[in-house]
Amino acid sequence: MGSSDSEVGHEFRFFRVYRDGRVEISRSQEEKIPPFDDPQTGVRSKDVVISSETGLSARIFLPNTAHPIEKLPLLFYIHGGGFCMRSAFGIDYHNYVSTLASQGNAIAVSVEYGLFPDRPIPACYEDCWEALQWVASQANGGGPEPWLINHADFDRVFIVGDSAGGNISHTMAVRVGTIGLAGLRVVGMVMVHPFFGGTIDDEMWLYMCPTNGGLEDPRMKPAAEDLARLGCERYVGWRYYEELKKSEWKGTVEIVENHGQEHCFHRRDLTCEKAVALIHRMVSFIKQS
């Protein structure tokens, strides 16, 4: 091995890049589990392939309270992980989204999008948009997925994400508000500890996105005009909250603070007091629709 093979060219919080172009993710990937019918919560789950070309897929969660003639709110969940880690099929996210589906009495679609370095940004945004379009295609019986056709209320869709997933959720809501998406109505968005610009991770995001627009890229620093075009009616970071209130957006915005908690603490221990409180707040937000 030559000397350049072991020399680090760039060091970021989640990965390092060697001089020869190799990328080493700092944290090991979490364990993935298959879908299953959970006897404790009664939530059933299954995986679907949305695009065989890119490998885009999703896990769908259906609570046992689903009645043949009752339509349930639909949660479109986008996981976090710094755009380069984590999985919708990981045990943490599986358990978390399953809990939201159970307590919120909602059907959930959790997206397994492409990650850096195999698929650099903007693959994550394009994959999630394709997945949201796929969900919309099921409306009025137009698609092949019976759980969505039979149980989803496409007029009560919530886009939900944490960390990087919160960032992607914002872009999805802006696209819905800008160009529309026939077949569904986004009534709310929930972003938990969303990643946006203005932190030590700015350079990391710019590196992961070779086609970036610099520090003012609207995907990293939401523009006022984008906030005004959010394609949802209700929203639940302080900076984002304040900018949204100042924009021309006509929806309702709420803020929930979690003092003294680590980033994305809510999915690591679903039994801790503040995680339970946050889940209850999200469930309340969903049920107000």
UniProtKB/TrEMBL annotation:
Pfam families: Abhydrolase_3 (PF07859)
InterPro entries: AB_hydrolase_3, AB_hydrolase_fold, Carboxylest/Gibb_receptor
Coiled coil: none
GO terms of molecular function: hydrolase activity
Segments forming domain Alpha/beta hydrolase fold-3: 75-196
Family that this chain belongs to: Belongs to the 'GDXG' lipolytic enzyme family.
Identification of the protein by name: Alpha/beta hydrolase fold-3 domain-containing protein
